[in-house]
Amino acid sequence: MRPFYVLEIARFTLQEAISRRLILAGVLISLGYIGLFALGFHFAYDKALETAPSTEARLALGFAFALLTLFGVYVVNYLASFLALFLSVGAISGEIDSGTLHAVLARPLGRSEFILGRWLGYVVLISAYVVLMTGMVLLVARLIAGYEVPEPGPAVLLMLLEGILLLTLSLLGSTLMPTLANGVVVFTLLGLAWLAGIIEFVGRLLSNAPNSTGADAMLNIGTAVSLLLPSDALWRGASYYLESPGVLAAMTTARGGIPFFSATPPTTALVVWSVGYVIVVLCGAILAFRRRDL
């Protein structure tokens, strides 16, 4: 393994994204979202101040804007998830179909170095996107309403881990399947992970209700899918660090809470499983590409 070649492939991956205007398109779409979020947040804040002169009403406004900020980051998380899959879904299969890899691998470049360079380039792109977009959403909330999330650092790290996990899984699929088939599989898995989170939420509601049936089965389904693809579980863990004390208290006392967020911090086992997941899947991508006929 020669780190210089890995870094060169990562650099070429970034240059390719720029030349294909992927970064430009992502920047324009992201700025459009931030603009809409800031505009809506501003109008909602001004209108709420006009109709809420009392102290109790202003406390309720604090809860509402904390929840609005949480939903803003929730959208960023899913935009980052789609971007991770979109970038890597044809990273290998697309190059094979176009014949580019025949010229690239004719040079003194190992297949493992090519895979790691590709992966590293995409990790840089996803990391920059998550950090900048999340920072802009939180900055909007701070400048307009003066609201600051309790612990943005752990939340951003968990979101980064989710994005890296998804792009690594998509990269593995790109070494095994054609681009279209890989896209269908990874986007379906992402949807199943989100659906499993909802099923687990409903199962938790049923487990608290009298004479309920099927709650254990729903909880087991949610847990099993989270092991298969822990993307939604990572987001729920990240959401805990973004919730204000008022939101946490409301979710703890309310029956079931909110289906898209979590009132408990992520477990150490989840983080360890996710990191190990990335390592194993990346090693699988390297081995699969070594054995694939071009």
Question: Care to describe what's here?
Answer:
The chain has 294 residues and is mainly alpha-helical. The chain is built from 12 helices and no strands. The radius of gyration is 21 Å and the shape is globular. The protein starts with a helix and ends with a helix. The model has no long low-confidence stretch (mean pLDDT 84).
Task: Please give a handful of descriptors for the protein shown.
294 residues, mainly alpha, single chain, globular
Quick take:
The chain is mainly α.
Along the chain, the helix and strand elements come as: HHHHHHHHHHHH
Structural class, from helix and strand content?
mainly alpha
Overall radius of gyration: 21 Å
Q: Regions with pLDDT < 50 over 5+ consecutive residues?
A: none
* Global geometry: globular
Strand-residue proportion: under 5%
Outline the biggest β-sheet: none
Oligomer: single chain
Let me know the average pLDDT. 84
- Separation of termini? 21 Å
Counting DSSP H or I runs of 4 or more residues, the number of helices is 12
Fraction in helix: over 70%
Tally the beta strands.
Answer: 0
